[in-house]
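Lay summary

Proteins are chains of building blocks that fold into shapes. Our project writes down both the chain and a compact code for its shape. Here are two examples, one after the other.
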Amino acid sequence: MSDLLEIAVVVPTFNERANVAALVARLDAALVGRRWEAIFVDDDSPDGTADTARELGRIDARVRVIQRIGRRGLSSACIEGMCATAAPVVAVIDGDLQHDETLLPKMLDALAGDPTLDVVIGSRFVDGGGTGDWDRDRVAKSALATKLSRRVLKVDLSDPMSGFFAIRADVLRDLAPKLSGIGFKILLDIVTASPRPLNFAELPYTFRVREAGESKLDHVVAMEYLIALYDRMFGKLIPVRFAMFSAIGGLGAGVHLGVVWLFFRALGASFIAATVVATLVAMTFNFFLNNALTYRDRRLKGARALLDGWVSFCIVCSVGAAANVGVAAFLHDVQRGNWAVSALAGILVAAVWNFALSSRFTWGRYK
């Protein structure tokens, strides 16, 4: 066996304590005769995943831990882990035991045998691969996601949604500054960020049944995937976070109008009272939706943090509303009658103000 480190296996985790020891044992069996290390990148799991990995690391120097505080996201976790090793090859594998770790030596051999290869991908959709016990609904969702991803891909991958692959570390480090780190499909991020089509090979494997823990797939994760696609297609024109913030602002405007109608027209309250209530409801709606989606990677948790965040968000948006009125009124006076342009300018100024200040003071200080 060579004394030189050959491969680092990066394992992004959140609440995977029950799988840590089993995964290390499987890596030990699969990579026998190879020099390897496992890097668990844990997003401060409340179940103690990081502590469990550290306990293993005390008796097995091949196990390392990066515990991230105040931030979350599978793609960004993978980037940190892949950049934290001296190994010439880095692999990504899920911590839920659903990927076939016995494929790792074949990935290493493929990269060693062909110096032109950049990445070797575990695929469920080439001959010999499979999706295990997936139901029709999940297969259909995966097929739709794959179809959407082809709009931004520069290579013809059979399984661009795969989270199981090995890549040359120097290729990854060159691409790291260009990666968005958004969402949960790091391979898609890597392939679309590369200025040249990456040379790849795909190896078949069958997706396994989760043995312990709970699946992380939910509607918010699906939303993150769409966000990642948007970022690759339009992010250079309008940053994805600002686009989300503005879209939620638009929904908030609809909520505001609905509450005004309810209190003023349906319940007979005064227009001023209805407007005050509508403003508070809309700002609260915007705050919690932005906390769940726009700033999911740094979202506020706990009653105190949420209360402080809501108060700062309302203050920021109140100043933004005043700026909106002031700019619109000034431009209306200057242009003498072009009310639509004046109103839009006021809205734009308020949107930029609210986004910039809330990013810094509402969600920035709780990183």
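And here is the second example, written the same way.
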Amino acid sequence: MKDIYRGTLVRLSDDSPELLAKAFARWDRDTEQHRLADSDPAQLWSEKKIKEFQEKRAETNSKSFRFSIHSLDEDKLIGGVGLWISSWTHAETWLGISIGERDYWGRGYGTDAMRLAVQYAFLELGLRRVSLGLHAYNERALKSYQKVGFKLEGRMRGEGLRDGVRYDSLWMGILREEWLALAETK
């Protein structure tokens, strides 16, 4: 059987709250990274606060599946990816990803992690639909998601505000049958 947590460039894992807190606190200081991954205002959190948040979230949320992303070449923690079940009844989930290590941006690591997360959603969780949202200015993410097979489903004009400038939010999705058809061509 295939290792569902291992891609061509990355592997998904579950790291200790201490390791995650140290990395996320460092990545949080990179405002560009934050603005690519999140629509909330940038906010600095201490390692202690992040660790407590991670531990509490792990205990209370049975509808989320979160993974750390490690590079295969160096086994370095480079980011995180998560699935949040919006409806078990309708077999739908939302996906979020962040590559915190700048040296790994634009080199295929995020795309590989996305492929693993989508595969996990469809094959391991038995879901039918994976959705995500992104900022229109994040062109690198848009291209990555399209490589995985996501289709643009909507645009909210002027939904966000950064540095006094309005930007659009984009909504994308992929259905199980679309993903299976793509998998057959590879």
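What can we say about the second shape? The first helix runs from residue 17 to 28.
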